[in-house]
Amino acid sequence: MAVRVLIFFALCIVLYANKVFADVAIPLGTGDVISISVFNEPELALREKIGQSGTVSMPLIGAVSVVGKLPQTLAEELSAAYEDGYLVNADVSVKVESYRAFFVGGAVFRPGAYEYVIDLTVEQAIAIAGGLRERASRKNWLILRGSDKQKIKAQAHTPLMPGDILTIEESLF
Fold first, then answer.
1. To pair with 109 at 20 to 30 A between CA atoms, which of 32, 37, 91, 128?
2. Tens digits of residue pLDDT in 157-169
3. CATH assignment at residue 156
4. Percentage of residues in the chain having pLDDT higher than 90
């Protein structure tokens, strides 16, 4: 009986985790690795890292702009494109295999680029980068986000996004 209860709880946790990750709405960007598949059409499958052009080349329909789109939106657009003269009821899925890196610079022990994980916070990013140096500011943290490098004043629990640049300033004392 106890084993059944444990299996039930483990299954609930897995299903909940899948639901949480499925609901994450992060727009696609340069450097993300995506896989695109069309149900029952293996020759139309694609796995590609999004390059500087912001496009991927899909069989039959050619170059498709993907940067800035949510995976679900891209799947719907590709379904419509394939249904326009190629397939009937195209069922396209788009999955993000890995997101572009985020960057940590300034007064940390190991500045650099790091692999992005869902729900990453500034505090976690600092830990990944080896922690704060002795003279690091404890509150003067800045995130540069997006292609326009929007400046965001950060705190420990501020969420990071793929491609963000986190800068930790040095304090005077």
1. 32
2. 999 999 999 999 9
3. 3.10.560.10
4. 80
